[in-house]
Amino acid sequence: MNASASEPLKFAYWVPNVSGGLVVSKIEQRTDWGYDYNKRLARLAEDNGFEYALSQVRYIASYGAAYQHESTSFSLALLLATERLKVIAAIHPGLWHPGVLAKWVATADQLSGGRAAVNVVSGWFKDEFTKLGEPWLEHGERYRRSEEFIRYVKEIWTSEHAEFSGDFYRLHDFDLKPKPVAGEGRAHPEVFQGGNSIDARGMAGRVSDWYFANGNSPEGVEAQIRDVREVAQVHGRTVRFGVNGFLIARDTEAEAREVLREIIDKADREAVAGFGAAVKQAGQSTGDKTGMWQDSEFADLVQYNDGFRTGLIGTPEQIAHRIIEYKRRGVNLLLLGFLHYLEDVAYFGEHVLPIVRELEAAEREKVS
Question: What separation, in Å, do the N-terminal and C-terminal C-alpha atoms of the chain show?
Answer without folding.
Answer: 9
